[in-house]
Amino acid sequence: MASPALICDTEQWKALQGHVGAIQKTHLRDLMADADRCKAMTAEFEGIFLDYSRQQATGETIDKLLKLAEAAKLKEKIEKMFKGEKINSTENRSVLHVALRAPRDAVINSDGVNVVPEVWSVKDKIKQFSETFRSGSWVGATGKALTNVVSVGIGGSFLGPLFVHTALQTDPEAAECAKGRQLRFLANVDPVDVARSIKDLDPETTLVVVVSKTFTTAETMLNARTLKEWIISSLGPQAVSKHMIAVSTNLKLVKEFGIDPNNAFAFWDWVGGRYSVCSAVGVLPLSLQYGFPIVQKFLEGASSIDNHFYSSSFEKNIPVLLGLLSVWNVSFLGYPARAILPYSQALEKLAPHIQQLSMESNGKGVSIDGVPLPLETGEIDFGEPGTNGQHSFYQLIHQGRVIPCDFIGVVKSQQPVYLKGETVSNHDELMSNFFAQPDALAYGKTPEQLHSEKVPEHLIPHKTFKGNRPSLSLLLPTLSAYEIGQLLSIYEHRIAVQGFIWGINSFDQWGVELGKSLASQVRKQLHGSRMEGKPVEGFNHSTSSLLERYLAVRPLCYMSSFRILAVMVNQYPKDNLEALTLGFYSFCRSSHRPHMTLPCCRRCNLRCFTCQLLSSYLARLSTSFFFLLSGVRSQFGSAVILRFCVHLLLGEEEKTSDTMNK
Ligand code: F6P
Prior knowledge:
Elements: H1 11-24, H2 28-31, H3 35-40, E1 42-45, E2 48-51, H4 59-71, H5 74-82, E3 109-110, E4 113-114, H6 116-135, E5 148-152, H7 159-168, H8 172-177, E6 182-186, H9 191-198, E7 206-211, H10 218-235, H11 240-243, E8 244-248, H12 251-257, E9 264-266, H13 280-290, H14 292-311, H15 318-332, E10 337-342, H16 350-362, E11 380-383, H17 394-399, E12 405-410, H18 426-443, H19 447-452, H20 460-463, E13 471-476, H21 481-502, H22 513-532, H23 541-552, H24 561-571, H25 574-591, H26 599-604, H27 609-619, H28 623-636, H29 638-650, H30 656-660
Parallel strand pairs: 5-6, 5-7, 7-8, 8-9, 10-11, 10-12, 12-13
Antiparallel strand pairs: 1-2, 2-13, 3-4
This protein binds 6-O-phosphono-beta-D-fructofuranose.
The site of 6-O-phosphono-beta-D-fructofuranose has 14 residues, from loops.
GO molecular function, one term: glucose-6-phosphate isomerase activity
Enzyme class: isomerase
Main location: cytoplasm
């Protein structure tokens, strides 16, 4: 008999649907009373302990889920992934992020070629480059060693590396290796993110890593051009080769951008963006910050879970169990969300990373064969470290909607503190919550209990907790680079398991394309209206009026110097203008660093003849002049003053708008 096209047509799916009623009649309070059940609902690997006894499930549920896995051909699908078959069929690609952390002697083929040697040759190059960089032998345009790295990338070229960086920052071994260095990320195309990412950085000691799989992502490329301008305006065009490097699968575009191909680090189309943290995307910036040996430990951790996932029986396989339970919660119990709640501040960027990993992978509307799905796939992932989340959204998960929770705890803190005289150490205080919350969710509190506590009658309904809210607990022995790699790999495979069961393609992302193409139509309109005064056309009424409203205000970066001057002349008597002008210049000089809107001053670093002359002239000015300056400053705002000064005194045409439209 031909196998059914959709998983929801199988007997095994229907058996689980039929089982829901029985489970809904139980309460976790009663399920938890069965110690044998609780003992069975655990799994352990290398000290990582999973307890899923607080899931609304019994042994029978797990059996049925394992049968569903069989019906979905889970084993075969995992094997196909590890063997490099092109399981990302809509993009005709293998899915081989496991090869990125495989040992040197592993053999993993894609298109009949073992990819492991290529992977290691890039890792060797990163190791060598990061050693040169960290030893101070790699110097910038002015001969200084570089200590700061800004990694420019978005989505998968940002969230995974940010998660790992944030987790490593307080690990004592990693922190020691990162002393005196900074790693920052620039993702959003919002110029505010540019300003934040380079705040207090000097281009002289900064290396920019442009990270983009395609090297065409609009946000990343504009941010990369903006930082290129930041470097050039300070150090000159020859500085790019020393201050900018890249990670991409598109080395041709890297070269065209002006980055020396020797300083480009490759990866491959068989690495999905959101699965790319173990490629040069994460390995390069993290090695620059922490050194390659720390990153290698992270990769080894991820690899250990790859082996566990590939070879353990499903009954004790952590990613498989987690994936099956998520399918159970989403597709059978009807819970659309999942909260990721690490009781570890170091894991504060885990939830944002999992959001992309999970929602971009599994938020699909058709099966892998293109058949519309009569079931919802994926879940809404969100989260926050405990205990911060407790003081934010836990009210809803205790008494409002039912949201299955992942509680993640660590036995040994990265930064233990014990204050003499305190009842417990600070980490024990944190972990008291980690152990208490799952029971509060599972058991709740009954009106009878409240009565026995003599709670006033009118408050009983408000203080009642229904309980029966599912969660699982994942306890890690510690949180070093190795466990961080393990945690990443657990989630990657769990999400793949969910997709394999639902029968979707978890490795494409066509859903992000439509918004991108509409944005380019808007971009064209904004350019036409700003530069050539073109009317808004081709949009619906709502978008047109929003655009007209937006375009009605001309931002400063598009204002001509003439217009600013006109404003000034109208405001101030002519004889004050000269004094004002010079005062503004002084103000500009003292506050320009590292101001992106002063290209002329940045370019000469105030060393040019005009700047020197004006500086010495200003030094002789009386203090009364500066009174005037401060009055004007408050009236116009510093940005106007700075721009006015540049335009008027140095006669430079405004550079910002040119840069923006390159
Ligand atoms: O958001 C869509 C997406 O394609 C992600 O999948 C990817 O991680 C991100 O954009 C960045 O893409 P790139 O690395 O090519 O710049």
